Amino acid sequence: RERRRREALRALALAQGDFALRDQAGARRAKSDFAGQWLLLYFGFTHCPDVCPAALQRLSQAVAALERDPALPPLQPLFITVDPERDDEAALRRYLSDFHPRLLGLTGTAEEVRAAAAAFRVYSSAGPRDADGDYIVDHSVLIYLLGPDGLFLDCYGSSKSAEELERSVRRHMRTYQPLQ
């Protein structure tokens, strides 16, 4: 059963592509920069009224709980914007300061962000602008777990609580075997 699961993950090849983006401090970041690290990754946007803040709160709570267990490896939380038009480095710094202190935000050009989203099969589409020029971005609402080899291990929808997210990540960390 485990062998079939591992073959299915290899065949899926989700998240094997690299990305080239900037973090909230302006430093260039690529997926390869995180090789050997556990990642919890969420795609969203800073002007989101409710879904993104709720997801980032759950992600932050799960990361904080996992950090309290010294037997577990470190976990890097990442946020990639789907709205690079409004989400520059300064916007990410302001927005992410309300969540986990190590939550790293990534942005880039529209093309770079589209490429990163495509590597994770994330859907996003900006809606119509209102009279003030404001808009909402419709997008996939999943938190992705990537193992130290950079491959997708699991994803979590909005129905998962922070506690369920924590338990699942903990289980993956304890039972992890590279897909080599």
Secondary-structure element order, N to C: HEEEHEHEHEEEEH
> What is the architecture at the second tier of CATH?
3-Layer(aba) Sandwich
Tell me the structural class.
alpha+beta
Strand content: 15-25%
Using the coordinates above, name the CATH class. Answer: Alpha Beta
Strand order of the largest sheet: 2-1-5-4-3-8-9
Counted by DSSP, the helix tally is 5
Count of DSSP E strands?
9
* Inertia-based shape: globular
Largest sheet: 7 strands, mixed
CATH topology: Glutaredoxin
Using only C-alpha atoms, the radius of gyration works out to 16 Å
| Overall structural domain count | 1
CATH homologous superfamily (4th level) name: Glutaredoxin
Given as residue ranges, the uncertain stretches (5+ residues, pLDDT < 50) are: none
Give the overall average pLDDT: 91
N- and C-termini, Cα separation? 17 Å
Estimate percent helicity. Answer: 25-40%
Keywords: Copper, Disulfide bond, Metal-binding
Pfam family, one: SCO1-SenC
GO biological process, one term: mitochondrial respiratory chain complex IV assembly
Membrane topology: Single-pass membrane protein
Structure summarized in a few sentences:
The chain is built from five helices and nine strands; from the N terminus they run αβββαβαβαββββα. The chain is α+β, with helices and mostly antiparallel strands and 180 residues long.
